[in-house]
């Protein structure tokens, strides 16, 4: 909400009063003596012989009082002399209404109360850059302020300095993962463009904001209300899709997948983008769309590219059918993008997401069977063909392989090779494909650990696509290193990467019991339940054979939890669905004895298999 002193326009009523109010005569009545009249007229003229305009001094004008100031030669008015005030006459001066002054004072009082409340709660008080008050700005004629305006979100008000820090945090640490916004624009530009976009940038910047650790949690409730109020306000500006891009790429933490609206928001984002015709060529004849400037064309194109990247990464990481649209303005080879000089990383990510869309539709979106998988006889050939396409893509992007693009490319390889779990059991193609999957997982996790070691900022600020791929890779290692493929794999390297990711999972956590914290706490129990990395023997079930095959490239994640739950139920005597395992039974069933995590009461409470916060197991089709 803009402060009341941002713009100030004199009311028409005041102007009318000034124009209708009788004014003292500018010259005395003409005397009978013509010589005396000429002398008086000569005395009232200005230094250049021009008759000056009669104007009250600033203080009398503010109080709407009659003023007898004389400008040539300057003589203070009798009121200012009597009250001991400086009598100034400024042609740029405008009256300030009493309500405006009270509003300014009220704003300053609320800002001081907010800073005092933050200081008493243990957080550092934010001191804004000193700004001239409303009277100083009005008298000097400068209405703008050099610092960012204070903004209000629900019950909270954020000063300009705090917003500057949040935006700086976003464009320094997060923007590189999805570079479709302009870092040269100030926060006021984004707030004026679309309030929910400005707050979305601030919320992403507050995810790991060490100056105000509780700021994200404090703003979440009011931010969510603003988000849904904006969505309910139809029609939408295409700038709303930018906010949804950020929210889906860095979602708010939730206690479980059932409460995570990321997939719904991604679908809504694509629908709003389509309604704003971002998918159409700029030369298309659309009656109600006027001519677009070159900068607006580029902005719309970058927004549409970001929407497809976010929508594809969301569906791929969650195992859902894609809802992307690469036809139309983007085309198949992206030649239309060249004149607009889009960031290389954005175009590279767009090509990677298009490849993910291609293999997802080829392998998982067929009208065959209940799971819509490709026919079993064609799976090995299709996977081999897609691997060749991946190699060509890797060669094409070799000149644009920044660290972020490289991670996205490795992540795409992990999701592609996860199809190895769907190849015919005991076939040579399956064994070779599982080896390729292990190599892809190791390459991806090694790249993540290398970048984290060199910068120390990747895991804290990474996108949802990278973090979800890390978790998916962790479950791949759980299956491969505890199953028959471990006999001909580098198990020591796999175990080292597994331990490193488990230890580093806490750096990705931004709230208690969010997905990274659940993975870091509970996956070790799953690892022990499936064998603890010991050599696989034939009397144990093969964990690489999936019972759940309906979640595309992440089916192995849900299958892992299903197997863990079944094993825990058998060891404690067969608890039914909805029956919680108590602490002692969970510790004994899941290996939580000495040397494990079993002594932590919160960890044991989290071991309830019906509350793993992924899905209700009774609703998962096998």
Automatic annotation (TrEMBL):
Subcellular location field: Nucleus
Domain Zn(2)-C6 fungal-type residue range list: 56-87
Gene Ontology CC annotations of this record: nucleus
CDD domains attached to this UniProt entry: fungal_TF_MHR, GAL4
Cleaved signal peptide residues: none
Annotated spans, Disordered: 1-48
Pfam families associated with the record: Zn_clus
InterPro entries: prtT (IPR051089), Zn2-C6_fun-type_DNA-bd_sf (IPR036864), Zn2Cys6_DnaBD (IPR001138)
TM regions (residue ranges): none
Keywords annotated in UniProt: DNA-binding, Metal-binding, Nucleus, Transcription, Transcription regulation, Zinc
PANTHER family: FINGER DOMAIN PROTEIN, PUTATIVE-RELATED, REGULATORY PROTEIN LEU3
Protein's name in the database: Zn(2)-C6 fungal-type domain-containing protein
Organism of this sequence: Amylocarpus encephaloides
């Amino acid at each position: 909400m803009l402060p009341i002193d941002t713009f100030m326009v004199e009311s028409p009523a005041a102007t009318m009063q000034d124009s209708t109010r009788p004014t003292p005569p500018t010259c005395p009545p003409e005397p009978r003596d013509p010589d005396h009249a000429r002398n008086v007229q000569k005395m009232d003229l200005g230094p250049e012989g021009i008759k000056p305009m009669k104007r009250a001094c600033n203080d009398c004008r503010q109080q709407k009082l009659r003023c007898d100031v004389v400008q040539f030669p300057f003589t203070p008015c009798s009121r200012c002399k009597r009250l001991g005030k400086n009598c100034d006459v400024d042609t740029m001066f405008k009256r300030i209404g009493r309500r405006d002054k009270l509003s300014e004072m009220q704003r300053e009082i609320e800002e001081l109360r907010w800073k005092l409340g933050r200081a008493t709660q243990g957080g550092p008080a934010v001191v804004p850059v000193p700004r001239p008050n409303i009277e100083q700005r009005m008298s000097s004629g400068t209405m703008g302020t050099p610092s960012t305006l204070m903004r209000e979100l629900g019950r909270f008000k954020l000063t300009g300095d705090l917003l500057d820090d949040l935006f700086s945090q976003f464009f320094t640490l997060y923007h590189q993962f999805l570079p479709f916004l302009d870092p040269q624009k100030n926060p006021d530009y984004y707030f004026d463009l679309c309030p929910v976009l400005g707050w979305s940038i601030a919320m992403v910047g507050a995810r790991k904001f060490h100056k105000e650790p509780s700021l994200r949690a404090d703003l979440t409730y009011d931010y969510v209300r603003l988000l849904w109020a904006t969505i309910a306000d139809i029609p939408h500006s295409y700038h709303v899709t930018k906010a949804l891009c950020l929210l889906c790429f860095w979602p708010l933490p939730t206690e479980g997948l059932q409460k995570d609206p990321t997939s719904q928001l991604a679908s809504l984002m694509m629908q709003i983008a389509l309604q704003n015709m971002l998918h159409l060529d700029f030369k298309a004849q659309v009656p109600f769309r006027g001519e677009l400037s070159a900068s607006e064309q580029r902005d719309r194109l970058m927004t549409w590219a970001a929407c497809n990247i976010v929508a594809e990464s969301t569906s791929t990481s969650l195992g859902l059918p894609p809802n992307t649209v690469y036809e139309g303005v983007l085309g198949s080879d992206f030649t239309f993008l060249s004149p607009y000089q889009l960031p290389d990383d954005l175009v590279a990510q767009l090509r990677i997401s298009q490849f993910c869309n291609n293999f997802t539709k080829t392998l998982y979106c067929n009208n065959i069977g209940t799971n819509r998988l490709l026919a079993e006889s064609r799976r090995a050939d299709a996977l081999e063909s897609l691997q060749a396409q991946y190699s060509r893509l890797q060669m094409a992007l070799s000149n644009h392989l920044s660290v972020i693009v490289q991670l996205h490319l490795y992540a795409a390889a992990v999701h592609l090779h996860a199809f190895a779990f769907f190849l015919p059991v005991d076939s040579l193609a399956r064994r070779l494909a599982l080896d390729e999957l292990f190599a892809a997982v190791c390459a991806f996790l090694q790249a993540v650990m290398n970048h984290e070691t060199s910068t120390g900022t990747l895991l804290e600020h990474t996108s949802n696509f990278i973090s979800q791929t890390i978790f998916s890779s962790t479950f791949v290692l759980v299956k491969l290193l505890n199953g028959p493929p471990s006999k001909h794999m580098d198990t020591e390297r796999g175990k080292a990467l597994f331990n490193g990711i488990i230890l580093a999972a806490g750096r990705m956590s931004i709230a208690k019991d969010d997905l990274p914290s659940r993975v870091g706490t509970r996956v070790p129990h799953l690892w022990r339940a499936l064998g603890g990395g010991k050599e696989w023997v034939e009397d144990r079930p093969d964990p690489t054979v999936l019972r759940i095959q309906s979640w595309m490239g992440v089916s192995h994640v849900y299958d892992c939890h299903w197997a863990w739950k079944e094993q825990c139920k058998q060891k404690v005597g067969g608890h039914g669905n909805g029956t919680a395992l108590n602490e002692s039974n969970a510790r004994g069933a899941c290996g939580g004895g000495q040397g494990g995590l079993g002594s932590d009461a919160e960890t044991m409470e989290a071991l309830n298999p019906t509350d793993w916060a992924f899905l209700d197991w009774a609703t998962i089709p096998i």
